[in-house]
Amino acid sequence: MKTKPKFSLDIANAFKDRKFKYSGTATLLVICVVIATLLINLLFSIIPLKVDITANKIFSISDKTLSVLNRLEDDIKFNFIYQVGLEDNYVMELADRYVAASDKIKSEIIDPVVNPGFKEMFAIDDNKSSTEPQTGSVVVENTTTGMFVTLTTDDFYSYSYDEEGNATQKYYDGEEAFTSAIAAVTTEMTYNIGVLTGHNENSIPDAMKTVMDRMFFNVYDVDLMTDKEIPAGTDVLLILAPEWDITAPEKDTILEYLDPKDTAGSVIFVAGKAKGDTPNLDELLEHYCVSLEDKIIYEENTKNTTADVKYSLMLPYQKNEITSSTTVSQKLLFNEAKPIFTYPELSRVSTLYFDLALTSDQAWASANPKSGTLDFDPDTDIKLDKNAAFVPALGVMELSDSVGTNVSNLIIFNCEYFLLEDQGSLNAYANDEVFYSALYWCIGDSNAKVNLTSKYFITATHELSTFGIYVYGVIFGIVIPVAILGCGLVVYLKRRHL
């Protein structure tokens, strides 16, 4: 009599076995987890997903930059003159955001060691206005037209300094540098800005001058005592807080520049520094039916002052066609501002006035500098009529009698310190934004304005070394999946004995 083999293969019953069901489920679960882990790793390696976790969003680009990128018609290339392994990671990371935001932008690293003749690639000629690239530079190139701009480390980083010359704060200007360079190589616009000299005027602060250099502005000095005329093509004449009055011939030259019979230019006048009478400057302002008071404004409404200092005004700028391109929400800072008064009823032609800033109706003005409690003195100080405010910043547009077209403009800031000196103040207040907007309004091209605020250099990120990246890669790519697989195997071995 034959006996049945002890170990026979019964496939049909094996699938019905309870042990097989449990072990099969565990095995399938492990396989699914492993496959899901591999797919997730593959997905994140393909998708260029980046999140800016820096405290100050220094790797993020603004809506203003996106609007510039969306209008691009030419192809742009970022050429990084970096030795491989010595790249500026902050600059490279921000550039990647530009490349991701527009298919018109590409980037390439040019290693100066491998390509020692890189300077010949960006030779400067009459059609390419830029500085010669060096190792560490970034050349923003319009590959359609051949125009390029060279950016250096100073374009990406800036500092504020204390009174002893020590750097106190570092700023990252990456977005401003890249966006301004793109705008510069994709436009044929160049605006000519003359700065009047010869009367102990203030100069344009370095931080603002750097921005103006990136905003299509060709800035040059105008000495009317020597040249006798304002250079042809000057779009705006800047008169920046002269200490002395202009001469009668200078006044006549400026009035001729503003003559409604011609295609005239515009004047931006920062006042408040003059010592003594200024009859010629006064006559220049009378052309627009405007006068300046040599009295310091004091503000009782603490919402309009800094640290409750009554003569340090912090006023919201007034929204109008002059400031329409201003995008910041900060207020204007006026230290020892003075009033501006208008007399439109005396105007010989049609004239429009735009208040750029207003005090509250609690403000008053004094010709005598105050100290101590800064209280109003009814014997020497002045207040305006009820519900009236002082105007420390004003815009004036003069129109032609015959056709009603704009023929000249005047912007006045009756505050010697309106052009702020340090980067911290520029970040905190809107003075520079309103000044740039006034420039473009005078020129008549507010849509071209591309200026961006510097950001404090605060990253607050978790930085990994190359070794750390490998460690995290091993942990998430190998250790965790193997651990999951091991757990599944343990479950399987336990279940198979049930």
Break the fold down into its secondary structure elements and pairings.
Elements (H helix, E strand, L loop, with lengths): L10 H4 L3 H29 L16 H8 L5 E5 L8 H13 L3 E5 L8 H4 L16 E5 L5 E4 L1 H4 E5 L5 E6 L1 H12 L5 E6 L9 H8 L3 E6 L1 H4 L8 E5 L7 H10 L8 E5 L8 H8 L3 E3 L3 E3 L6 E2 L2 E7 L16 E4 L4 E3 L8 E7 L6 E3 L26 E7 L6 E8 L9 H6 L2 H13 L11 E2 L9 H30 L3
Parallel strand pairs: 1-2, 7-8, 7-9, 9-10, 10-20
Antiparallel strand pairs: 1-3, 3-4, 5-6, 6-21, 11-16, 12-18, 13-14, 14-15, 17-19, 19-20
Helix pairs in contact: 2-14, 10-11
Low-confidence stretches: none
Query: What is the percent of helical residues?
Result: 25-40%
Please identify the structural class as seen in this structure: alpha/beta
- Given the structure, what is the number of helices? 14
Strand order of the largest sheet: 8-7-9-10-20-19-17
Mean pLDDT reading = 80
**Shape summary:** elongated
Major sheet details: 7 strands, mixed
Report the count of strand segments. 21
- Rounded to the nearest angstrom, the distance between the terminal CA atoms is 33 Å
How would you describe this protein?
By secondary structure, the protein is α/β, with parallel strands linked by helices. Helices cover 31% and strands 20% of the residues. The chain contains 14 helices and 21 strands. The protein has helices at residues 11-14, 18-46, 63-70, 89-101, 118-121, 153-156, 174-185, 206-213, 224-227, 248-257, 279-286, 423-428, 431-443, 466-495, and strands spanning 76-80, 105-109, 138-142, 148-151, 157-161, 167-172, 191-196, 217-222, 236-240, 266-270, 290-292, 296-298, 305-306, 309-315, 332-335, 340-342, 351-357, 364-366, 393-399, 406-413, 455-456. It has a 7-stranded mixed sheet, with helices on one face. Helix 10 (248-257) runs parallel beside helix 11.
